[in-house]
Amino acid sequence: MSTPAGWYDDPTRGGRLRYWDGSQWTEWVSENGQTASEPLGAPHAPASGTPSQVREVPAEVSTASERAAEPTPGSQPAPGAGGTWGTAAPAAVAVSTGTRGGYPMNLLGRVGHGIAAVGGLFTLGSIGQTLTEQPLGNGYEATDAVPVTGLVLTAGAVVAALVPNVWARLGGHLVAAGAAMFLLLFMIGTRTGDALVAGTDVSVSFGWWCIAIAAGLGVLGVLMATFFFTTPARADDGRDSAPPMGVIGFVVALVGVLVFPLAAVGGAAGLLGKHDSDASSRRIGGRGLAIAAFWVGVAAFALWGVILWIAGVAAQP
Rounded to whole angstroms, what are the CA distances from 187 to 133, 142, 191, 221? Predict the structure, then answer.
């Protein structure tokens, strides 16, 4: 009777295990909880080989051309027998629960955040200027809140573009979206406020257009970054648990229909949830909800951003 598949003492090197697929030795070895690929007869590689990231070594994995003797039944207990390091070795091959590959940053997403960051700097052009004015001399001056908001937009976008932690990225994304919303509303307020007389033309200054450009670039950059918040998952990376990004994204995106900075965060979280599903061969559920969150968030943010920017440019007292 053939020896069942499992981890047994490596016949080529003591103190470690090699995987027997039921008919022959494979290339997979395990030592001190780390797995590596070392074909039979190859020079011994360090135990910290990268295949430790493989979720599970399939029985049909390709094997080395050389054959070693079949393991002697009983020399190393088969999986499930319990009680020795050899029986625990298969558990070392399975990845620990968690989001193995994380959420890699997408270059286009970083470009989007970069656009938003540059946009925030345009608000510095409004410092000390009269933003809107009517023939009678009434109008609005720039306040310190405008360049401060612009710098907040820049800071949030930089954090979202450069900080690896996904929660920090989402936080920076929200800050940037919120700052862009403030600038949009400020554009409208300086053209329709109580200090202006209805029915009278309003002239806008270079400083006002700096704010309009900052708001427009902020919306465009955040929208682009939402669309490319993470790179698509190319293959199963072994993750078997992750935050419920699809659910979080869907709820936040729905609220974002009314509070549009949240729409950007909901869309980004939805994309992360889709990434989790794709990177786990759908072992992690919620793909449909994640996709819905993404599109609801992107659509809501885009519509609000375009409508408010046009309103700011065309508004009259």
Answer: 13, 11, 7, 18
